[in-house]
Design a protein that fits this description.
Length: about 625
DNA sequence: ATAGGGTTAG
């Protein structure tokens, strides 16, 4: 254009700025500005604002600041841009000062300040500003509702969410797709998935399959977001089965199931441990032609390793091959989870060689790996590396892992010192881990002391009593064990009910102890009785005394034989082909008797059985378990 | 000009 000698008008220049902003092309943006000055073009407020936008998109904060100072004329847009910029670049006070001194605040000014404060982690201050906005009399826009609903969910203030919901309806935003999706998300995050699903029911059907292939209107996108939020909502609230049901409905009804929803669902599969469904989704994902990116890849790696298929995890990891921390961390944690401690460590070293900077989660994976493999020196080395070389402050989880590491290696005095030196004596998880170590290394005296500490710190945690009772039982102090149990009853501490899950075809079957509600109930119990008889012949002896689980109240041989994981295992044996591994998920720690039972089953029936309990992963084969009887 | 979903750990 310049070569032809035509003179660009302001409209053209503004468009040029838009392009620079889109491409983050700072050089070109600066060039345009210089050209305007050289040719004496009148830089009006709109062009000035466009230039501000380009500089900020390119992270050239100083340029923007200087331009703002030099502008002859500024409007509310210029101010809003700068207020937002100061928040994003971390100068919250400066931003608030500017905001307060702004005489002509519009709705965007308010939206910017509320959202910015929230993004900076000042949620309470954001809420204050929202209240000021109401007092000031500024009408909410759709954007205000989105921001405010997110604020309500991040503060987990259902009451605020409800009020906003009322305002949304009154102001006529109830049919706006994105506002509705924010409402769905707010209710999910505040734990009211019932409310969320009612709103979802009103989501119009026009984005469904009928005659609408390939169309992605704003409403379509909003509908997908709502459904995606609903699926994630189920997942966040632990309602995995409902989440998967909603996802299936989505696959059946929708034109597109997008990559973000898929990520959430894979993560749901990982958490509930249903490998088959995860595999289906993986296949479905490839069928619709999406590339597996680092997000989906990390969740797939996590899913495969948590479902006991480390091969699957490696396949994904090699296939993606990106220097992404989370991707590597997922693989390291996966190895660690499966008891492949040394493998996890060598992967970590390779990661460092490739120049990828580990984060706090990576170190947690590595420390757990060391603990699992009993590598005390390495564990200490990495703990120091984390603090000194990477300036990461050890969190509760890292410290618990170290306590586990020392304890498992039998260094009980060091464990004790570590706890006090690092100020961890208020943490339940730390004392629990320590107590397990005392039990493992049969140090009764230390165990008693630790028990006292544990009960002081966590008098209402059922797990404390269970551990304690188990320790007494393994020392044959039956009276003591009984005393612990009655203390627990006296104090009104209730144990969480134990549950086990197994997936068959596309159905998830849930079992609780003594469950009689299953339709194959008779078959399961009679097979279980026969099986126990046969197991006794090869050396299994049910030991009720060793098994006050994290779960069941009652003791006695009959009741322990009906623990949920035994029911689930038997259900698996009855209903699946002989060659296939049986995969069980359990919501608590597996008890000693069930562990023993499953070891013998794997031997008697020559069957691979994989149990994932709350703590770790048990891979039973030929009569032994991958955890080497430590969990 | 302002927002609007996702990954690892626990």
């Amino acid at each position: 254009m310049q070569a032809k000698g035509a003179c660009p008008n302001q409209y053209t220049l503004s468009s040029v700025y838009k392009c620079c902003s889109f491409d983050s092309n700072l050089q070109f943006g600066k060039g345009v500005h210089a050209w305007m000055l050289r040719h004496g073009v009148d830089v009006d407020v709109v062009l000035g604002n466009s230039a501000l936008d380009v500089y900020l998109k390119c992270n050239a904060f100083q340029y923007a600041e200087r331009l703002f100072e030099l502008m002859d004329e500024r409007d509310v847009v210029s101010w809003n841009i700068m207020i937002g910029a100061y928040l994003r670049f971390g100068d919250v006070e400066k931003s608030l000062d500017m905001f307060r001194s702004l005489p002509c605040k519009d709705v965007v000014s308010w939206n910017t300040i509320v959202d910015g404060l929230m993004q900076c982690g000042y949620e309470r201050r954001a809420l204050e500003q929202l209240h000021c906005m109401v007092e000031y009399g500024t009408e909410f826009s759709d954007v205000t509702f989105s921001i405010a609903l997110i604020l309500a969910s991040s503060l987990s203030v259902l009451e605020l969410g409800r009020q906003l919901h009322g305002m949304v309806l009154k102001r006529g935003f109830g049919s706006d797709g994105f506002t509705r999706s924010s409402l769905v998300e707010m209710y999910c995050k505040c734990g009211r998935i019932d409310k969320a699903s009612i709103i979802l029911r009103d989501v119009p059907l026009d984005f469904r399959r009928k005659g609408n292939v390939g169309v992605t209107s704003k409403e379509t996108k909003a509908g997908i977001v709502s459904w995606g939020s609903m699926v994630s909502g189920y997942v966040w609230n632990g309602k995995y089965e409902d989440g998967l049901k909603a996802f299936r409905l989505m696959v059946r009804e929708l034109v597109v199931v997008d990559i973000r929803t898929v990520t959430t669902v894979i993560s749901a599969c990982a958490n509930v441990g249903i490998l088959d469904f995860g595999r289906h989704i993986h296949a479905y994902f490839q069928k619709i032609g999406h590339r597996v990116d680092a997000y989906v890849g990390s969740s797939l790696i996590d899913m495969y390793s948590k479902c006991g298929s480390l091969d699957g995890a490696w396949m994904i990891f090699r296939q993606i091959n990106e220097p992404n921390v989370i991707l590597w961390t997922s693989m390291i944690s996966g190895c660690s989870l499966q008891g492949q401690g040394r493998q996890a460590i060598s992967l970590f070293e390779e990661m460092l060689n490739q120049g990828i900077r580990p984060n706090e989660v990576t170190f947690l994976g590595v420390l757990n790996a060391c603990s699992h493999a009993g590598l005390l020196d390495e564990g200490c080395k990495y703990f120091r590396m984390m603090k000194d070389a990477y300036c990461i402050n050890p969190g509760v989880e890292h410290c618990t892992s170290m306590v586990d590491l020392y304890g498992r290696a039998g260094c009980l005095t060091e464990t004790k010192n570590f706890i006090f030196e690092n100020g961890l004596s208020h943490l339940t998880s730390v004392w629990k881990s320590f107590l397990s170590s005392c039990r493992l290394h049969k140090n009764v005296e230390m165990g008693k002391w630790v028990s006292d500490m544990l009960l002081q710190v966590a008098p209402s945690d059922p797990g404390s009593y269970v551990l304690l009772s188990n320790m007494c039982a393994s020392n044959h102090s039956w009276d003591e064990a009984a005393r612990v149990r009655s203390l627990m009853h006296q104090r009104g501490v209730k144990k969480q009910p134990g549950q086990s899950w197994i997936q068959l075809k596309d159905q998830i079957h849930t079992f609780v102890m003594g469950d009689r509600s299953h339709h194959q109930d008779k078959e399961i119990y009679s097979y279980l009785d026969t099986l126990i008889g046969r197991l006794k012949e090869i050396g299994y002896s049910p030991d009720a005394k060793l098994v006050m689980q994290d779960v069941e109240e009652e003791q006695g041989e009959v009741l322990i034989s009906h623990h949920s994981e035994k029911l689930a295992v038997v259900f698996g044996i009855i209903n699946t082909a002989h060659r296939l591994p049986i995969r069980i998920i359990k919501n608590l720690r597996i008890c000693t008797d069930c562990h023993n039972f499953i070891k013998h089953v794997s031997q008697l029936l020559d069957r691979e059985i994989i149990v994932r309990d709350i703590h770790r992963y048990h891979h039973f084969n030929h009569g032994s378990c991958s955890c080497e009887d430590y969990w």
